[in-house]
């Protein structure tokens, strides 16, 4: 039965992990954690977030960061799409009045996040793009995101989500940056073990995010989440996320071509410049916003994440079908960093 369900999800191009994430939403809706248990879970979540970013630091190869760094024009283009155009589009979409203020704030938060690492590189590889550049660009996006995301959130969301001042940035430094640096420093001793036990580390990685989602949605449900978000609003959110992804995909594709990038570089720009990281976004939401608010704010991210995986899977296959003798094909691949 489980194999049949797995095959069905595969045919529908639905990530099984996304199903688990939404399962946490259902569980929190039925059995939300309350009172002293909620306080205890909050402490566990903070420790899980610290562990998550320690592992990210320990997994990230310094060679991957250095690799392709001389291709500064490509990297600046990707960063411009990620941290300039995307937040602008998110802010414009939020101000249309289609979504409720909280969901609109979640959309802006989504737009301020860094790119994904693993899936951006994987799709670039499938599409026969510049994988070395994708490794460097996606890694740089996440490193800079530790600083840039809370700054953008403070600038763009204080009126919508109650986020003001620089206290959230201090929390990011303590709960994300310091564990990340500790992971980098510990890499000579733990890096080989992590490479050898990638599957176990992956379980810890994803399990931490599931825990954060359950905690955030529990607080949101206790605060009356489902009285504030209606099925119609969820459908509207689905449409807005789909439209936002379509616009950014078109912008990255035709922007790369207008700037004269080779096809392999265009592919890296499309997949690194159009995606948003749930691995970074969910823990950041738990730090930047109160629990009840964070539960609602990550809804746009969860929906956008699934849409981007489905859309980019199709686009990657389309790129891969171009002629094998393409002059820009055959670039050396680099190993996945996360």
From TrEMBL:
Q: Name one GO cellular component term.
A: plasma membrane
Which keywords annotate this record? Membrane, Transmembrane, Transmembrane helix
Mind telling me which Pfam families this protein's record contains?
A: SBF_like
- Provenance organism: Caulobacter henricii
Please tell me whether the keyword Transmembrane helix is annotated for this protein: yes
Membrane-crossing ranges are: 12-31, 37-55, 76-98, 104-124, 131-152, 206-226, 232-254, 284-304
Instruction: Identify this protein by name.
Output: Bile acid:sodium symporter
The record lists the lineage as:
Bacteria, Pseudomonadati, Pseudomonadota, Alphaproteobacteria, Caulobacterales
